[in-house]
Structure formats: C-alpha cells, structure tokens
Amino acid sequence: MKIRYKKKQVKLNLIMGIFWLIYGIVLVVFNEDMNWFDYGWFVFSGIYLIIYFYQKKEKYLTLENGFIKQNWPFGKKMNLNEIKRIRHFAGDYILKSDNKELTINIQLIDEESLLELKTELKKLNAEWN
User: Which of 27, 49, 99, 104 is most exposed by smallest CB count within 10 Å?
Assistant: First the structure.
C-alpha cells in the first residue's frame, strides 16, 4: 500500500520551482551586471522541481511485506510486527519499537491515504497514546 503526499504539498513544490525558474530567467535577460549568485535561482528552481517529480513518482510511505518504509533517500524502515507503541503528538505519529523510532508527519499525507494508514496501524498489536 502506498501512502500519498497531499496534492497541495506536491503542487506547491511545482509552483515554487516554476517561480524560481522564471525569476532566474528574468534576472538573466534584464540584468546587465550578472553576478555568479544570480545563477543560484536556477539551482533553487532545480531543487524544487526535483522534489516535485520525486514526490509525484515516489509516495510518502510504503506499507508492504510486513514493513513500513519512508520513501525518501535516507528514510527509515521498520518491521510492523516490532511496533510496540504508537503515539499521536503534534501532527505526527511516532511509531516505537524496542530499538527504533519512526516519525510520520501526518500533515503531509493525503486524507484518503491517512484513513488507510490509520486502519492499518489500528490492526497492529500496539499501545496507542
């Protein structure tokens, strides 16, 4: 099961990427005194566009084969059977096992996917606080 990002979050990254790209182009076209720093706007644009395409392709979380995994380059992975406690605090779900902790930011999750996530987490034999 894939847990998607909110569409608003993904669109925001696209809008910011396009904005910084247009800003960089305007600076290059209309500015006679170009500084190396002025080309940094293209870097900002590239970063936002890369994040947009990554979030569009990869979802926020994956639940499969008895594991929950955050889908970002240094995301954590946790066995669902090892989860002892689930805590809802400040817009996050904090999943705890004996030796690991995984924090899920539920404000980034699409509403339908959040319901699916809650359903799957309720099935676990874990203590909720």
Answer: 99
